[in-house]
Design a protein that fits this description.
Shape: globular
CATH superfamily: Tetratricopeptide repeat domain
Order of helices and strands: HEEHHHHHHHHH
Number of strands: 2
Number of domains: 1
Number of helices: 10
Strand content: under 5%
Strand order of the largest sheet: 1-2
Structural class: mainly alpha
Radius of gyration: 16 Å
Amino acid sequence: MEIERELTANGRDLVPQEIIDGALSELLGLTDGDRDVALGIANAKFMSGDFQGSFTIYSTLVLTKPNCFRCQQGMANFCVKVGEFEAALLAGSAMVLLEPDSALGYYFCGAANLALDCRSEAKEDISKAMRIAENDGNDELLAACLRLSEKLTVSSR
């Protein structure tokens, strides 16, 4: 797997598998319910304009349980909205690794790549997201993908 190569250097793990699997979250006693509440608070902070507070929560959740799809989704969404596209691409890529059959990770990667002017990558990601969203009957996400696709088309003229 791609992530495994990047997480090792000179044959040694840079990030132990236990951390990726959420050992830190377990050590702190965080449950899925706690994460759900924290995600709601992070979103509320964002909506009220407390971007620093929102970022602190999202980043803490990702650090304590990197393999939590919803935590990565929150981080990707936050980063796209505040224009931190490199970070959005990282979180979106983690989403794709965690759930390759979900359109959301590809959507966030496509949005980030489009903003970073990585046009071929954006086109590929948006196309994948559109196919999956259409197959899943997710009309809302499909519409968002179509808007990104239009931006890609308009910006290529």
